[in-house]
Amino acid sequence: MEYICTNYGGLGEKVFHGKLANGLDCIYIPKPGFKRKFAVLATPYGAIHRKATVDGKEFSTPAGIAHFLEHKLFENPKTSIENRFASLGASVNAYTTHTMTAYLFSTAENFYDCLELLLDFVQQPAFTPQGVVSERRIIAQEIKMYQDQPNWAVYLGALAGMYGDHPVSEDIAGKEADLAQIDYELLRKCHELFYNPGRMVLVVAGDIDEKELYGFIAKNQGQKQFPKLPAIKSLVPRPQPGVGECFAAGMEVSRPLFCLGLRDQLARDWQEAGRRETVVSLFLEIFIGKNSPFYNRLYDEGIIDNSFGAEYSCTPWYSHFIFGGETDDPDRLAQELLGELKRLQECGISQQQLDVNLRKLLGLFIMDLNGLESTVMAYATDWLQQGDYLTRFEEMTKLTKKDVEEFLHNLDLGQSCLSVVNPLNQQ
Amino acid sequence: MEYICTNYGGLGEKVFHGKLANGLDCIYIPKPGFKRKFAVLATPYGAIHRKATVDGKEFSTPAGIAHFLEHKLFENPKTSIENRFASLGASVNAYTTHTMTAYLFSTAENFYDCLELLLDFVQQPAFTPQGVVSERRIIAQEIKMYQDQPNWAVYLGALAGMYGDHPVSEDIAGKEADLAQIDYELLRKCHELFYNPGRMVLVVAGDIDEKELYGFIAKNQGQKQFPKLPAIKSLVPRPQPGVGECFAAGMEVSRPLFCLGLRDQLARDWQEAGRRETVVSLFLEIFIGKNSPFYNRLYDEGIIDNSFGAEYSCTPWYSHFIFGGETDDPDRLAQELLGELKRLQECGISQQQLDVNLRKLLGLFIMDLNGLESTVMAYATDWLQQGDYLTRFEEMTKLTKKDVEEFLHNLDLGQSCLSVVNPLNQQ
Lengths: 427, 427
Description:
homodimer; 427 residues; alpha+beta; Cytochrome Bc1 Complex, Chain A, domain 1; 2 domains; 15 helices; globular
């Protein structure tokens, strides 16, 4: 099979890309010297993909089905997939997010056995109708477990406040009532549609001979038959405008848990989404990075501690900040955050702030490349969103004060929603 | 008093500098938003400064006297200095290195009370002849405690291998036999000579009004009398050329401890020393930073683990690398390190390696500025060595492939010395 090599000069990295006859995109990131190898196989099918048109016909599924399917691919008549990886000296993991499902292994030995196992267990389901029935109980238990976690509750509270009953604000595993509607045939159908190699990407990193690697993948895929990929158009609803009520609950926590959601405008497409995430990664450093005066004031005044974190997600269907952590005074912290955002909107940022934080961010980006797991995951995620993780670096180097200020200018601070979990005795 | 402000544009930092009538250099690094404040008072008097000429006359002291004096400045007739800082809500610490002694406090409250206490306890000794006698026992105990530490033993073993009986390879606290020669009068004399404000620097960081700060310091210093600063010329011996035998010992460790020393040429002056340390900070990233292929190969092959570290020191009197950590095969690790250094000497480095690692290093430098303790310490250290910590950043941005390769070219790989501490049962 053919593949091309792209050099990312500014990073000293190169990346190979080949597309198989069946449509599978295969990315290889060489990491000379590394003994451990990583591979992730991912599909752009996540918790928000409940409705689609398939060759023009509407296809609806219950909430939680992508996650359910992820679980079931690990079912195997002989021995569990986890055990088979373990017996090869490898470890395997899987993730269902709102927008994708990914299967990942890492190993220092038996790489090709592991790669074959990954491709086979994800592409050739072995689960049974009986296995589906018993899985319902297992997932119901998992849902219950998450519901009892204060961190999760406060996070979902912020999402629900921002998006109401839009799929993004529901548990990725669905609700218990949804599980009863998920059966063997539906799961098989979803697998056939959404795991077609023409929609998927394989990302491999490590010290591997690329010719051998691509030869191996081509041979494995050549032995398999897949149905023709239908025209699938995902029908994710647009969330209602405006934000809802604050969320508050009492749970077994020693200090209040805080989550402030702040909605941003939806991205027109994935390209704009990726671009905006890059701008905001810089903005977050300037606004509330560990070197910022604002972060340090909040920290030194005891309003935040090391548990504090900030994230930003941007997609065509949802787009928001989430600020979260423990704090004794959630209302004060929310006011502080929104107040500082307002100040930045009015006063702008200095060129110096931009330069310094950009340098820090570029340094961090390079450091992160040493973590192969996060690199392959980020590469797969960006690829499925029509982006290129390593190109982000080049884009970052070109960010300007104007980019950040335009973003800030378009941000509507009225779109925030506070979620709090209080200790039970302080309700 | 007068002071000037220097802007470090590339870092978004500014620094104030004022020199008092008595010669004390006062540096203030504003950190807007930070509630915690740090101050360090330091003198270029460390463990290697045993001999000097004072106004042309030779002045000799026993090993360990700088460290002994540091201990004694904490003696106080009423309550210990530590307790007085604690009662102000602050914490205090002191460090004696080979080349300096530094006294540091940090506090979120009562800053000026703390600053006054720092200036007073360091400049106005309150120790007694009786206190000196009892201190000998305490320090002897400390020396013994360090000797029993395998990490310390393997480190001193590498220094002794490189420098024989030069002061740099001896315990900073001296030997027990040295302590008997240190008495009250000698300590007072050393304090008078080496703690003269004309030789010292005060570095303060935090969110402070600079006018008030400089006014306060000037007033405090104006109330004190100091003898005229004599002409002091430090007589640190030049180490013998060549390295000695390998060092090996058996101690209570579960895995062998490894320390490879590699001598470099002495610096002509502090300026060259600082410059070379900057070049080597970049070189170490390229050679064995966590993103380097070499580090990752050693790590993945199990030859090194997270305990591995590399450092480089350069002064006019000693100059070396130390590589250290736990390893099952110290000889193999030494061979690997020297082999890779040789390869780099022969093959050079690529422009890409330089660019990527330089970016990482600049990002790290900026991140480190968030740690005020390390910033004031680094600033004081560089100042006493006629350097400027923040200017290092600008120098770093200008580093070239040629700088690194010239350094490598001048490195003599024959100047290495291996030190190992083995588990007792594997001797």
